[in-house]
Amino acid sequence: MFEITFLGTSCAVPTVQRGLSAIAVRKEGDVFLLDCGEGTQRQMMRFGVSYMRVKAIFITHLHLDHFLGAFGMIETMALNGRMEKLTIYGPPGSKATFGRPKEFVEVLEIDGRFSVDFGGFSVSAFPVKHSRDSFGFSFEEKEKRRFYEEKAKSLGLKGPMFSEIMANGKLKVGKKTIKLADVTYASPGKKIAYTGDTLPCAETFRAAKNADLLIHEATFADEKKGEAAEAKHSTASQAADIAKKAGVKKLLLTHLSGRYKDTKILLEEAKAIFENTLVAEDGMRLEV
Amino acid sequence: MFEITFLGTSCAVPTVQRGLSAIAVRKEGDVFLLDCGEGTQRQMMRFGVSYMRVKAIFITHLHLDHFLGAFGMIETMALNGRMEKLTIYGPPGSKATFGRPKEFVEVLEIDGRFSVDFGGFSVSAFPVKHSRDSFGFSFEEKEKRRFYEEKAKSLGLKGPMFSEIMANGKLKVGKKTIKLADVTYASPGKKIAYTGDTLPCAETFRAAKNADLLIHEATFADEKKGEAAEAKHSTASQAADIAKKAGVKKLLLTHLSGRYKDTKILLEEAKAIFENTLVAEDGMRLEV
Question: Same domain for B73 and B202?
Fold first, then answer.
């Protein structure tokens, strides 16, 4: 399970209601940030997500509104005596952008084949279509093996036997050998995909395939389709179209233009194509 | 008259209630910023101060919490098509810090003797005691010549004669020549001083002499006097002491440590020395 908190849901210019791009993904006490726009540390305080628990920051592309907040956050971490490593995963150019940060910070430059394993889940990058070297990121839990409880118990499994058979793949109970495969099934892990800024593109479709949640940028409504194409952004209905084709369970629209004080039009246009759509708001929290 | 809006009143780490250092000084439609911490552009939106009207940013010292927001604000100005010059006045090192900003931005490095004339008023720097090259800034309106109205009228001055005598220094009314000095007096301009981060120091005392308003940092209460000295900050009572000795009209305390959720102790300690003290809050607005 992942817990997601939207920290900033505005496009390039913030508004009173929406901060600049940042999403916190919490997993077993650790926090992973997707982008880190100006003001993110304060948004975290506001919405009760610990900046000291941030283990990694994934930066989709090197436009200022997606990373400026990392500088302020690192400074605050240092003032709080942070020693634990913080890794910033960003596009080529990230090392130059962050210069010589504090000692506990490591900056790693990624490409479209990047993937990192955090134990119970992995984070992978996928290339998107916006500025040069723009990426989306997907979080994928590993498949888990779960017991058919009734069947397992009827075959005599109990107590520590469950861990034993899990560890060894089989277990002798009385005179009979039980195979792990016979009493368990594979439970797929959860999957989230986040686009960063992008035109609608096949790479997002592939990365979001059957995801539990797709967080897609939707800077504009259809009325601004031309402007969206020009600025290499998406409309709400384009995001919905990808959500539908990729067969995702839920779509969240973010990175909204400040012109949509009322986001009804974005929601309506998306829902006409993909029903299970929500428009992100700063502070919105959901579990996947 | 100056209109002052506190945009961020926290010390190095922001809180939910307080943003990072920034103060807007409005004068005849123009906005001048004193420091520009992370999140300042959004604080301006929140408190109704136009970032497009910012003519100059005065940076007291090159600690990140006092200037990071300028990067985001410049980006937003550019997205809004800004062409008018924006001048950043900062300590030595500012040019390197800001690198190659947008074309409309000019970065000027200042010293402790710096002064710039904006027509009706001037802004001057004074060296303070914090990090290397830390400055405070004072805003001073020029003296204005005002008429003793009754006397001027009794001598026959009326209508356009007022502008004439003001322009020429004297005016013949009937057979009599009236001298400007006889019908006018010098009305002193308003004066504001802002310290930035500093230990209590003689330079602030001199710059604040008889000011209408002294905005002094007060990171700590007296209980943390040692810590204040070590980190080269001031306590509320040290700020009050300078306000009293400099004979200022009003003292505003800002740059408060996040530990003072309740600022009563700061206010009480300062008021015990200098009665006309206020603790700044984000969004607080006053006219001087």
Answer: yes
ipTM of the complex: 0.89
Q: What is the distance between the alpha carbons of residues A58 and A80, in angstroms, rounded to a whole number? A: 22
Note whether A79 and A162 are same-domain residues: no
Q: Which domain holds residue A98?
A: 3-143+188-287
Which residues of chain A have a CB within 8 Å of the CB of B42?
14-16, 19, 38-39
Contacts of B86 (CB under 8 A, 6+ apart): B54, B55, B56, B57, B74, B77, B104, B105, B106
Number of domains in chain A: 2
B125 with B171, same domain: the answer is: no
Whole-model pTM: value is 0.91
DSSP label at residue A66? G
Distance from CA of A20 to the nearest CA of B (A): 10
B interface residues, A as partner, C-beta within 8 Å: 12-16, 19-20, 38-39, 41-42, 45-46, 64-65, 68-69, 71-72, 75-76, 79-80
What b-and-e string marks burial along B93-118, b requiring 16 or more CB atoms within 10 Å of the CB? ebeebbeebeeebebebbeeebeeeb
Q: Check whether residue A60 and residue A173 sit in a common domain.
A: no
Last residue of a domain, one of B165, B185, B205: B185
Pair (A255, A283) in one structural domain: yes
pLDDT in tens, chain B (288 residues): 999 999 999 999 999 999 999 999 999 999 999 999 999 999 999 999 999 999 999 999 999 999 999 999 999 999 999 999 999 999 999 999 999 889 999 999 999 999 999 999 999 999 999 999 999 999 999 998 899 999 999 999 999 999 999 999 999 998 999 999 999 999 899 999 999 999 999 999 999 999 999 999 999 999 999 999 999 999 999 999 999 999 999 999 999 999 999 999 999 999 999 999 999 999 999 999
